[in-house]
UniProtKB/TrEMBL annotation:
CDD domains on file: TMP_TenI
SUPFAM superfamilies: Thiamin phosphate synthase
Single Gene Ontology MF annotation: thiamine-phosphate diphosphorylase activity
Record flagged with keyword Magnesium: yes
Protein name: Thiamine-phosphate synthase
A GO BP annotation: thiamine diphosphate biosynthetic process
Protein's gene: thiE
Keywords: Magnesium, Metal-binding, Thiamine biosynthesis, Transferase
Amino acid sequence: MPGEHLIQKSELALQAGLAFLQYRRKGGTEDERQHEAGQLLALCRQYQTPLIINDDLELAMAIDADGVHLGQSDGSLKEARQRLGNDKIIGTTCHDSLQLAEQAIQDGASYIAFGRFFPSNTKPGASPAPLSLLTEARARFDCPIVAIGGINLDNARQVTEMGADFVAVVHTVFASDQPDQQVYRLQHTLNKVESA
């Protein structure tokens, strides 16, 4: 997604009450990523929403983002915690492994993410995880749990009913011409779970 559209869509999603915004860009130059991330950080500050940088500890530190999300091959979580301190948010992807989650918590993770639970446009080749994993993780861990992978308006409620505290959505919000409306719809769907 070109930078200008990313910023515009992010602002609409933030206006709608997005809980967190994660910046994930695999291409582009370091300067381009730093510029975009800086613009997003300014927006997030305006809307009092944490900005998490995906897979790039150095970028998170350079712009003083609120945190970083690390995949299993993106460096040491323990080292990231030492470098960022205790006030920053650090999350990690645990795929379908409770053992990875346990290690992540010991290493200082603020939250753990599991998935993919459904076919995903962002990571089409990711291995599937069973929904029951969320229930097992909820019984075992006190930290926030994020469900990732193919989450949309039709299945978001399923993962929160199984134990997820948050859902990570990309395509559902950012492929839409009305990202704010998609965020509102997700909130409405998820609020049904809380009031049930």
